[in-house]
Each structure stands twice: as C-alpha cells, then as structure tokens.
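For the sake of clarity, the format in which proteins appear in this thesis is described at this point. The record quoted next illustrates the convention:

___
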Amino acid sequence: MNIKKLAGLAAFALVAVGCSKGPSSEELVFRSELYRDMNNIAKAETWARKAIEADESYSNAWYALGEVWVRKNNLDSAIASFDKAAELGPENMDALYALSNTLSAKGSLDRAMEVMRRAIEVKPDSTIGHNNLGVILSAKGQNDEAVKSFQKAIELDASNISAHFNLGTVLVKLNRLDDATASFKKALALNSSYSQCYVELANICRLQGRNDEMYNNQGLAYLTQNNLGGAILAFQNATKLNPNYALGHNNLAYAYLKANQRDNAIASFKSAARLGYADAQRLLSQEKIDWSK
C-alpha cells in the first residue's frame, strides 16, 4: 500500500467522523480502491456498492465495482459495470479502457475495437488508446493496421515500452524481421530487463538461422529471470556453435560471475578480450575484478 493512500485513508476517517451526513461517493470509491490494492476484494466490493448507493450517477463508483468483478473473474458482470460507468461518464477514460480490455478478454473483439476507437475520439493524443487499439487489430488479424496504431502510440510517446514490443511482435507476423529486431531493441533500450524481448529476439535469430545469437538471447532472457543455470548453459551453447563469438564469451563470463564461478568467469572474459570485445578488454585493463582471488 503506498503512503499517499494511507494518508488518504486517515483523511477519510477524519471526514467520516466530522461529517454527520456521511462520506461522499468519491470517498467511498477511494476506500474501495484502497482495499482492492490490499487484495481484500470482499471489502472493496462492499465500499464500491456503498458508493453506488450514495450516488448511482457517479461513473467512478460503477468503474470501481467493475474492477472488483474483474478481480473475481466475473467478466460478464465487469462488462455490465464498465458499460454503466462509460454511459454515465462518456469521457471516463479508465472506464473506456477497462471496458474495451474486458471485452477483448471475453473475445468480443469487434465491440472492444468500437469502444477503444471511442476512447481515442475522446482523447486523440492517448498513447495508451492507440497501443490498445493495435493489440485488438492484431488479435483480429489486421496486422498492417495494427502497425499503424503502434507507430502512432510511439509517435505520441517514444517511451511507451509496450508499444515498441507490440510493434515488434506484429512485424514478426508480417515477416519484417529486421524491423521487428529494431523494435525489440528499442524496448530493451528503455528497459534492459524486459525478458520477453530477449525471447522474441531469440526466435527471430532462429528464423534467420543465426543460432549462436539465438542462444545468446536465450541466455539474456534467463539472466533477467535470475535463472543462472539456464543462462550459463545457453551462453555455453552460443560459444560452442561459434567459438569466435566475443559477445557470447563476455555474457558467459558475467553469468559465471553471478554464479560465483570466478575461475570460469576469468577464462571467459579473457576469451572475449582476445576476440576484441572492448568491454572485456577494458575490464581486464582496469582490473575491476580482483583476478587473484
């Protein structure tokens, strides 16, 4: 639970004590959200329903109830609640996004797309809206249109990691493998721990017959998951296939280091350095690691 919500809860308690007519629907929704964040779904539902009782026309109260239904995996009830929230608040972006996403989860892609387009009409500069529309278009097999939506999302916010990743996955479907590689690398530049990007890059390398790089990317995926055994095996496979693969030796060295296999790490760093890998050469020359241990 974050500090702001704790402070809000304290303020809520003070208001509730000092106000004879009881808390507002907005305050009740806040309490529902608080309990939802605490994963106390029963109380979250109680306060969402109280918010609706206090003001049936309050869009966010119905949205809060919809979120409760999502947590309870009752998608039909969630859709009904989000529908009501969107009806009462035509510009309630949270409700529109949630409605579209829940419809997608139910497989109602046509209506999900309709709702997401409505959300984009309300807020044309929403990178979230264009990214989500691209996901729906891709699910419908409209991959060329999906590419345009993801590109628009990136144009609006170049730091949208999901849009870069999603664009990459669609470009793979279109067999635009070099463009897909560039998209995944842009996502990794924003978040180097994005494990699934390495998995997708490994798949592209497999499709292109670059098996040493395939294993290297598999190893990087394992590293982000802290699976050191899997990472070491993958990097070993990469360097066995291509003994001159400097990056593979370097990454193997780092995996060995994380696994406290210092002798193996030293040997792999030296292999990378001999093959001209600059980072390994710099590391050795600067003696950042006490090789005597």
Summary: Residues 3-18 form the longest helix (16 residues).
